[in-house]
Amino acid sequence: MKGADVDEGILGLFREGEGFVSGEELSRHLGVSRTAVWKHMKGLRAQGYHIEAVPAKGYRLVAAPDRLTPRQIMAGLPARRIGGSVICLKETESTNAVAFKLAEEGGVEGTVVIADAQSAGKGRLGRVWLSPPGVNLYCSVILRPPISPVAACQLTFLSVVAVARAVEACTTVTPQIKWPNDILVSGKKVAGLLNEMNAETEKVNFVVLGIGVNLNMRADQFGTTLRHPATSLFEAGGVEVNRVQFARTLLAELDRLYEVFLKEGEAPIRSEWLERSRICGRGVKVSCGEREFSGVVEGLDAFGALLVRLSDGKLETVLSGDVSLIN
């Protein structure tokens, strides 16, 4: 058994049980000597794992390092379709660019690319997404859905709902959805999504779901050049978020929702999006390039366009632009 496999075996046994695991049990299960177990414990501690050792009881995992590694993230993931392969990078220009290239080269569906930092993170409409190291989650997922190109925008529902669920599961913060693909906390952006597609006339070759979530950024890291106010889950809730736990939770939710999407279509996910956004019946101001107008939101169509009723009774279908609530 290779060293990395022994490490993973030890961590797997820690996760499966509660309390202490004896050196004898570890040795027997992994097929290595007690001395080898001791050496691997020493190595895991050097990697940042807090492992307690008590005579006659054995070893117990007290805490794991908050480093984004494939081993940490993939452990125990359902990975029906998403998360079977996780690539973690120390830094890259953009996880979307890396995932897009991998997909062009035949990367399998469900492959996840995560970076500790991005030097050229991308937001919607060509905007910059600030991506400092060690504090947030920047990830991209390759999907190959059997849908037409016009339906690919429906996957935005999936990403947004998955992030909202993960925020609720990992924090005490209440997320709000802002059309088309932002997550806000107290009116400030905490997460953004950018989907990119490669398609033919009637066939989607692949879609890359890009997700950036501000987990532990401090206020002084946001700078002064942002178009819209931003925050982090730490700033909003006052508690640091475990990045590994959040990544695992997000990928598990994406996996569940993608399964629903493939079996039942976008309708149930769109329904949850609408329920979470609470935008129906609200007055909004819409900016589309140089055009601006106001109206009342009546819902979303099947492809994610915002349906806004104007004061003259006309129903406007908004495909892109900036939307702000006015009441």
From TrEMBL:
EC number: 6.3.4.15
InterPro entries in the cross-refs: aa-tRNA-synth_II/BPL/LPL, ArsR-like_HTH, Bifunct_BirA, Biotin_CoA_COase_ligase, BPL_C, BPL_LPL_catalytic, HTH_11, Transcriptional_repressor_C
UniProt keyword annotations, A-Z: ATP-binding, Biotin, DNA-binding, Ligase, Nucleotide-binding, Repressor, Transcription, Transcription regulation
Record bears the keyword Repressor: yes
Annotated catalysed reactions: biotin + L-lysyl-[protein] + ATP = N(6)-biotinyl-L-lysyl-[protein] + AMP + diphosphate + H(+)
Regions recorded as binding DNA: 23-42
Domain of life of the native organism: Bacteria
A GO CC term attached to the entry: cytoplasm
GO molecular function annotation: ATP binding; biotin--[biotin carboxyl-carrier protein] ligase activity; DNA binding
Binding residues for biotin: S94, T95, N96, Q118, K189
Protein known as: Bifunctional ligase/repressor BirA
